[in-house]
Design brief:
InterPro entries: P-loop_NTPase (IPR027417). The structure is a single chain. The chain is mainly alpha-helical and about 70 residues long. The chain has a domain of about 40 residues. It is built from two helices and no strands. The longest helix is centred in the N-terminal third of the chain and has 20 residues. It starts with 11 loop residues before the first helix and ends in a 24-residue tail after the last helix.
Length: about 70
């Protein structure tokens, strides 16, 4: 039995899979006996950990101004 995973290029899913693979490789390097002490974080990795998470754009609902009716009908 074969299982195929179809992922669209440039999609969020592709980025998630890449991050999962990177995370699995990093965990394997850290937890393996041969790699003990060999896994190092680069300066870029450390900086990426402290980068702020981009906020989702805020949608502000503007309240409609109440219309004031005059005797002229406007």
């Amino acid at each position: 039995m074969f299982v195929y995973k179809l992922i669209t290029a440039g999609s969020v899913e592709e980025k998630i899979v890449a991050m999962q693979e990177h995370k699995a490789a990093l965990a394997e390097a850290i937890l393996s006996e041969a790699g003990a002490g060999a896994a190092k974080f680069s300066a870029e990795d450390i900086e990426a950990l402290f980068e702020p998470i981009p906020a989702a754009p805020t949608v502000v609902a503007l309240a409609a101004k109440p219309r004031v009716r005059t005797k002229a009908g406007t």
